[in-house]
Amino acid sequence: MRTIKYIIITIFFTIISLNSYAQNPFHGTWEWQNGNQIFRVFLFEQNSTTKGHFEMVEVNNGIETLVYTSDKPYNSAMAQHWHPVINVGLNSDHVSLSGRILDNSYDYESQDFAQYDLCESWLKMRILTTNPTTATWKVNYYDIIPNNAPPINIPMDIIMTKVE
Amino acid sequence: MLFGISVLFTNCMEDSMEIEKPKADKYSVSRIGSNEFVKNRTLTEKLASIGRGIRQTTGGDYARYDNVQFDLILNEATFIEAIDGSYHSYTFGIYNEDDNYNINNIVLSLTENGDYEADLVTYTLTQEERSLIDSGIEIDLLDKMTVEPFDIDQINTYGRGSTCTEFVEVDRFENCANGHNVSSCTWECCGHCYEYVYEWQSVPCDGGGSGSGSTGTTPGGTTGSPGTSGGTTSTSGGPKATALTNTDGSSVRNPCENMNELFIDYPEYRQKLVDLSTTVNEDHENAVGVFKDGTEFDQSGTALEPYVELQLNPISEYIAIAHTHYETDATTGQDTYSVFSPNDLQFYYQRLKDNNLDHRKFVAFLVTGKGTRYALTIKNKTKYLNFFKYVTTYKKWQSGLAATQEETDYINNTIVPIFDKYYDMEGDNPAPIKTDNTDNQEVLEAFLQFIDEADMGVNLFSIDETFTNYTQLNYDDSEEDNIKETPCG
């Protein structure tokens, strides 16, 4: 009896979870290929929000080499990894999302970065009506920023394809 | 940061200037800048000792001794000197960021051996009394004063004994008219709206005492003649003297005062705000502002770029920043937030932390393509700095230093969740502050809840089209629409 109850509860929460996932067409893995480089974005649900990380890899002979990733330790002195740097929400039209992204792709511990402050940008994605597995990806600084904001390193205006 | 406490040496000004002849002839009083008193090596060593002796708060920017939070104002002091040259003291103001209406001063008094004794003088005030002082209205402070030696880490070389303290008012200066506003005072007048010099000395704890001046009342209510007897302190040597010095007033300041003063000092700025509000449908953000030295700036962003860059290290402190959040015809209602964004608030934080923004005068204005107009002021610097301290943790990561678990937890358990709750959330109960939310009232209510929950220490106001009438806004769930509106008088 206890086992049956456990199975029912598990199925219930699985359905809820799948339903939630299904409601947001952006959850999953998105890619943009440029030559032998692939920019990859992972969007997932966390605490009723859409969170995410990104990475850039280089592909040579089918072998991927990491160029940068947002899911890395906070710095060389710490083991703890970055919290998700993408914080976005599905808009009421259900085909676009917007929110904030922190570009941490730099080697921000280097002296070259010392003049800059890490600074959040906004992120907007919109599913293309012509192909629902593709979406625009637009990143830019927003509102007041200091005049020492670093140039944004990640792609800022591309079309991505959902692969998972 | 100097001495481990937040100090403000940045506005070193003119040499000392004699202010007024006293009615009595025992002391002369002047205001002096740091460029004057830093020449006094014994004094600066004592100030350094105080900095080492007080305990840092977790925020790192302030320190506490007993129950007083310190932010010593070291760019100027009240200098009291005996006419015969036998004595002098320096009185320094302390920002009062605590939830009370008291005024605290640090007084460094010359002793016979050439050293300085440090005392903490507290004026214990009610809200009404503090408002009167901030409005320049005279009140009797004698029975509201207490003094205690700054008696930690052997900062004071004298020993504690079984004596008490007696206050007397000895001199009075009258160079400021009633109604003078302390918070807007100029260098010539600042700190001299209450030109009473109070003197204190040790007396036996069974009462009595000598001295000249006015009659005082003990804290317990017993009338003494003359002076005031306290019961907690012990000092040595002859009488010491102080005067109420340079208040911050943040906790009781009229919340509308920053706007009032800004438009008195820069009346033409109002029209610039009106003009700015006509640009909210351009395809970029714009900003106009004022620095403390009176210079103004005007900045435009780039077409289709949703940001405007402002100076990181301005020549003078920011006292006003107005900027737009635009909506273009192509994407009306989807471009920007109708309230201040995290980046806006963080910019103010970084400038405040770097002493590039004077929070006592500062007003942030926002006009948006969604039709909203807001002003935001910082009423409690400590709270504001405390909430945004995670930005400093980012900087720590950049420098390769390991953040403490507390610092990391603060980001993951406080900052991320609170921004998730109010900005951009989706799902069954979406966070209303989204760029595509055109229900300005809903977004405003969420923003007010956000600044309340964050305990950010700010005031928010709505503004009419002419930028003349301001209404303070507070989240209040007893109100019909959860927003309490208090028009500025």
Topology summary:
The complex is a heterodimer of chains A (164) and B (489).
Chain A: H1 2-23, E1 28-34, E2 37-46, E3 49-60, E4 63-69, E5 86-90, E6 96-102, E7 120-128, E8 131-141, E9 143-146, E10 157-162
Antiparallel strand pairs in A: 1-2, 1-10, 2-3, 3-4, 3-5, 5-6, 6-7, 7-8, 8-10
Chain B: E1 17-18, E2 27-33, H1 34-37, H2 41-53, E3 55-56, E4 63-65, E5 68-70, E6 72-82, E7 88-94, E8 103-110, E9 116-123, H3 127-134, E10 145-149, E11 163-173, E12 195-204, E13 216-217, E14 223-224, E15 228-229, E16 240-242, H4 257-265, H5 269-277, E17 286-291, E18 296-300, E19 307-310, E20 318-325, H6 342-353, E21 363-368, E22 373-378, H7 381-387, H8 390-398, H9 405-422, H10 440-453, E23 458-463, E24 470-475, E25 483-487
Parallel strand pairs in B: 20-21
Antiparallel strand pairs in B: 1-2, 2-6, 3-4, 4-5, 6-7, 7-8, 8-9, 9-10, 11-12, 11-15, 12-16, 13-14, 17-18, 17-20, 21-22, 22-23, 23-24, 24-25
Your description of this structure?
The complex is a heterodimer of chains A (164) and B (489). By secondary structure, chain A is mainly beta. Chain A has one domain (26-162): Lipocalin. In chain A, 13% of the residues lie in helices and 48% in strands. Chain A is built from 1 helix and 10 strands, in the order αββββββββββ. Chain A has one helix at 2-23; strands spanning 28-34, 37-46, 49-60, 63-69, 86-90, 96-102, 120-128, 131-141, 143-146, 157-162. Chain A is globular, with a radius of gyration of 18 Å. Chain A starts with a helix and ends with a strand. Chain B is α+β, with helices and mostly antiparallel strands. Chain B has 2 domains: 17-242, no CATH class; 257-487, no CATH class. Helix content of chain B is 21%, strand content 28%. Chain B is built from 10 helices and 25 strands. Chain B has helices at 34-37, 41-53, 127-134, 257-265, 269-277, 342-353, 381-387, 390-398, 405-422, 440-453, and strands at residues 17-18, 27-33, 55-56, 63-65, 68-70, 72-82, 88-94, 103-110, 116-123, 145-149, 163-173, 195-204, 216-217, 223-224, 228-229, 240-242, 286-291, 296-300, 307-310, 318-325, 363-368, 373-378, 458-463, 470-475, 483-487. In chain B, the strands form 5 sheets. In chain B, strands 18-17-20-21-22-23-24-25 form an 8-stranded mixed β-sheet. In chain B, a hairpin with a 5-residue loop joins strand 13 (216-217) and strand 14. In chain B, helix 9 runs antiparallel to helix 10 (440-453). Chain B is elongated. Chain B starts with 16 loop residues before the first strand and ends with a strand. The chains are: A mainly beta (164), B alpha+beta (489). Chains A and B meet through strand 5, strand 6 and strand 9 of A and strand 19, strand 20, helix 6, helix 8 and helix 9 of B.
